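## retry 2 of 3
previous attempt timed out at serialization; input unchanged, resubmitting
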Amino acid sequence: MSIDFSKVDLNNFDFDTLSADEYREFLQAWSDYHGRLNRVSVDVLEQEFERKSDYLQCGEHYELSELYPDEFVELLFERKAFEQGEGIIPFEEVQSYEYQLWLKQKIRNKALRSESSNSDDSQSEKIDYSGYRMWRYNPVVFYKDGKKNRHRLLLKDDGESLSFLSGRDFAILSPVTYVGRTNSYRNARFLYAFAIDLDGVSMHEIRMLLRGMTTGVYPVANIIVNSGHGIHVYYLLKRPIEMFATRLDALNKMKRGLTKIVWLVSKLGAERAQVQSVVQGFRVPGTKTKFGKPIRAFWNRSAPMHTPEELNSFLGRAFGLSDEELGQLTDKTPHNPSRVTLKEAQERWPEWYASRVIGRRRVGKKWQLNRGLYDWWLNILKDGQQVEVHHRYWCILTLVVYAVKCSVPRDEVLADALSLVPAFDRKTETVDNPFTEDDVNDAMRAYDEEYNKWPIRVIETTTGIRIERNIRKGRKQPLHLMIARASRDVQALAKGKTNWYEGNGRKKGIKISADKSCHATLIKEWRAKNPDSKNKSLCARETGLSRPTVTRWWDSAV
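## retry succeeded, writing output
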C-alpha cells in the first residue's frame, strides 16, 4: 500500500472503508513511516561525529594525540621485553618460514581436491608440521570483499596491508594474536588489550566517561576510538596474557566487569551494556564508519599500561574476579592441561576421537533438545518487545543456535530469521545502522559451523533478554529431584491413580510396572535383540522407559 502520510489526516481518516487485509497493510505502512521519522539523519550523525572528534582533541581532561592506522596497530601490539628478560614477538615483519611452508602445503592440498573432488585420499587434507622451528603469532583482520568474508594476516610494518585496509567499508581487528589466519578462540594465543564498545554515545556520555577516568572511578583508557555513533575504549596490557583454555572464563569475566562499570558511570546504564568476548574485533581506524566517514583513534600518552591486578581493583565485589580467578591470569595458578595423550584419548573416548580428530567436527556429540525451545525463542523475537536495537544480531544468532540444538532444518530457520528482518529494521534509530538480510546471512554461519554449546549466561548477556531458570530453591539436584518425585507420586494418589504414569499416553503394548526389576527385564530383552547397539536413547524409545532409567539399569541388564 502506497500512502503519502504527510498528506493524511489521521483524525478524520475513514478506517471503515478498509478491508481487514488493507487495514493490516495500512498499519504496517504507518509503522514504517513513523520509524523513518524517528531515525537520525546522516547529516546529524556526521555533525555529532565531528563534534566528538574535536572534543577528544581539545584536551579538556587529557592531552590526546590522534593516531594514524599504522601507529594504532603498532601501539596496540608492540611491547618491550618483560622484566625477566623474556619477550614475545608481537608478530612477524615478513611472512615467516613456517607460514610460507604451511601456505605451500595448503595450496597444494586445494589443487589436489580440485583435481579429484571425489577422491578418498585423506593425505590431501593433512599438513606436515615436522619442518616447523617455532609457532609465530599474528593479528588477523576480518573484512568484507563484496558479500564474501575474508581474513588477512597483519605483518609488522606492513604498509601493503595497511594501505589495503585504508578506506575500506568494513574491516575489524581484535586485540589478539593468532596462530594461523582464522580469528577463532581455538587459534587465539595472546591478549594485548581489553577493548570495550560503547554504542550510541553522545557528547554528554563522552564527558562523563572522561570525567570518570579523572576521578579514578574506573581505569584510564590508553586509546579511545571514535567509531561513528559510538566509541571504543582500549585498556592496553603491560604484559600480554597467554590465552590458555583455562583462562578464557576469567578473561571474559574481567572484560564483562570493565564493560559494566564503564557503561554504568557513563550514564548509559549497566543493564544496557553490550558485553562481548575478549576476542571480539572492532572497526580499524582509517576504515569507514557506517555513514562513510573515516574512523579516528586518539592516544592518551599519560595513561600507563595496565595489569590484571590493577584492573580488577576497580571492579569491586559485584564484578571483580576471585583470588583464584585472578591467579589464573597472573601465573600464580600454573597452566595444567590434561595429560592424556592422543593415543590414550582414542582408547578412552572412541566416539569423541572419531568425531573430533578423524571427522574434524567442531562440537562433536550434542544433546537433542525439544523443538519447543526453538519455537519459544522465535515467539519472543516475533513479539519484539524485549528486543533492543543494539542486540538484534545476537537475537538472530541465538535463534540459529537453538535451531542447531533442536535439529531444525536450515531452510526453515533461514526463512524464520528473514521474516523478522522488517520488524527488526523498524527498530533502527540511525540511518547508518539498518538491520538487513546480510545480518541474517552472517548469523547463519553459526548453523553451518554447528554452534550448539552456547551457555544460557552468554545468551542473556549478548541478547539482553532475561531467561528464567527452573527453581531449585537452593537445593542440590539429587535432593531437589527426590522432593519433586515424591510430590509427583502424592499428586497421582490424590487423583486416584495407582502410579504417576497411568494413562500418560505411552505406546500401546508396552508393559510398565512399578516393580524396578521389570525395568532391568525390559532392557535385558532389548539388548538381547540388539547385541551390538549401545544406543540408550533408542532403547528408551522402544521400551517406553525414560532415558535416565535406561542409563541406571543398563549395566545390570546383561
